[in-house]
Amino acid sequence: MLFAKSLSKKVVLLSDGTVVGSVYNVTMDLKTGSLVDIVIKPQNEVPEIEKQNGLYIIPFESVKSVSDYVVLDRRRLKIRI
Fold first, then answer.
1. Structural domain boundaries enclosing 33
2. Domains in the chain: how many in total?
3. Is residue 20 part of a domain?
4. Is 79 helix (H, G, I), strand (E, B) or coil?
């Protein structure tokens, strides 16, 4: 089980070790309770991720693991436009 509160302000990395930023917020589907997106406050520019209102909004399915860091699987990274 993963509590959204446990994600607060964790550092977000790409699977190759690139620092993306820190967790700013998460969005969830209220009907199913599943996490939909992870909203990241950027620390570094990542060219393949488009900013929206100064933040990265990444589908939660791109999260590879959560421990001391949130790791995004670069291969599964899907950008919403």
1. 4-73
2. 1
3. yes
4. coil
Rounded to whole angstroms, the Cα distance separating 42 from 15 reads: 16
Write the pLDDT tens digit of every residue in 16-43. Answer: 999 999 999 999 999 998 889 999 999 9
64 burial via Cβ count (<10 Å: 0-12, 13-18, 19+): middle
pTM of the model: 0.83
Residue with tokens 């421990």: 67
DSSP string, 11-63: EEEETTS-EEEEEEEEEE-TTT--EEEEEEEESS--TTS-EETTEEEEEGGGE
**In this structure, is residue 78 part of a structural domain?**
no
Whether the CB-CB separation of 60 and 37 falls below 8 Å is answered with: yes
Separation of alpha carbons 55 and 51, rounded Å: 5
